[in-house]
Amino acid sequence: MSELLNKIKLTLLFMNMKNQSAHIIGSGFAGLAAAASLAQKGIDVTVFEKNKTIGGRARQFQKAGFTFDMGPSWYWMPDVFESFFNRFGKQASDYYDLKKLDPGFTIFFSNDERMDVPAELSGIYEMFENLEKGSADKLRKFLKEGEYKYNVGVKDLVYRPNLSFTELIDFRLMMGALKLHVFKPFDKYVRGYFKNPLLIQLMEFPVLFLGAMPKDTPALYSLMNYSALAQGTWYPMGGMHEIVKAMQSVAIEQGVKFQTDAEVEKIIVENKKATAIQIKGEEFKSDVIIGSADYHHIDQHLLDPVHQHYSKKHWDKQVLAPSSLIFYLGVDKKIPKLNHHNLFFDTDFEAHAKAIYKDPKYPENPLFYVCCPSKTDDSVAPEGMENIFILIPIAVDLKDNVALRQKYFEKVIARMEKTCGTNIREHIVYKKSYSVNDFKKDYHSFKGNAYGLANTLLQTAIFKPKMKSKKVKNLYYAGQLTTPGPGVPPSLISGMVAGDLVGKQVFDIEKNYKKPTTTKTKVSKTL
Hints:
Blueprint: H1 2-17, E1 21-25, H2 29-40, E2 44-48, E3 60-63, E4 66-69, H3 78-86, E5 98-100, E6 105-109, E7 114-117, H4 121-131, H5 135-153, H6 171-175, H7 177-180, H8 186-191, H9 197-204, H10 223-231, E8 234-236, H11 241-253, E9 257-259, E10 266-270, E11 273-279, E12 282-285, E13 288-291, H12 295-301, H13 312-317, E14 323-331, E15 341-345, H14 349-357, E16 368-371, E17 386-394, H15 402-420, E18 428-434, H16 436-443, E19 475-477, H17 488-505
């Protein structure tokens, strides 16, 4: 009898929740995760997207027979994606075919040196040992420490909304502060293990996209090395947009509605409470609003000054991760020597990093990244052709024009031709560029950033812009400018956390905050 009463209560609660509504601004990974998580609790959710297609920075476009992912291209931390799908009784494999890349990625150095990073740890240990005697055992210890940070950080602490210092009063965090290396610079940490300059660049390269020089980044972020090397690099067949389509499918199954080509012009606030959004002059009322679009834009441009969480002065002090200069190329032949992921580190790493973070300007001889998904996936390019994505990380808010873009295209294509030993220019049948001005136009991106805020110590966890507005009731935020930070997995986590937080604080669905159940990813046990 009691079981029947509980079922009736839950049914009535769900029916009541359907009378409650939530509007999500933005349909990137954070917005999709927040929408699905909140709708699962019985809330009537609508997602509003300013562009004509969903996905935010992970949109996709097709031209001349090629299918291009516009933004993210690395699939790391596979367990985070599983944690999302598991919430709904699903797995990633229910929606897309995930392939482990071997090699995971390739790094091209100067003097024609290259490093193909194997998919399996046994091969990685052998590669390290060949480059530096004794380094295989050092890598085992390095990855053990990275695994600890991953388990404490990615599987626990990042699933907290970081609203106050009390969330950091955690026994493992307090007892393991030294093991987490929160206060140790990344560069010193890496050099404490390895001396070979190629191995150092391999370990430091993920930090280039975190928004600070290795010496200004906490060694906590060696957890990224753990994911890259121990968990491996993956690819969803069809492209990264397959994740977006899968998440949208999950959201629709929960009852989420989508409106595209619907740019929010204003958040309506009455008696210090967010009550509606305005689109093309029309008001859409809601009980709660989650802004998963650019936090700065929402705070500074969609709210009246009296309701803004932060001042302009505060925003101007924030340290941002890089912007990017991107080229999408369709090439009518196969390019030798390229793998799926390729890092061209054949110039000075430090000089480029300084041009991003210390003395903002275009780097004279940039490092750059090339993704060639057609090496793995025949569906993204016509037969016998290559789909090529070139990305140069650059400082935010730089001057951006056609001449500058072409200048840097010539620089990188010349180096690619030299490294690959073949002509590429004359075989380009499609070309499109994308940079600072496009990020601002398409996403209202603060200063044209591509990755959010830098992961410096003073912009980590509780020091990031708050997920809950302190001035407007029922206004929340998700995405790469709030906790836990930049990147696809953190943005996805941000959306789940925001959805749970709103469910608890606004609709009183949950008495205590609970992090989602995660699926344990199979990782080689030879650490």
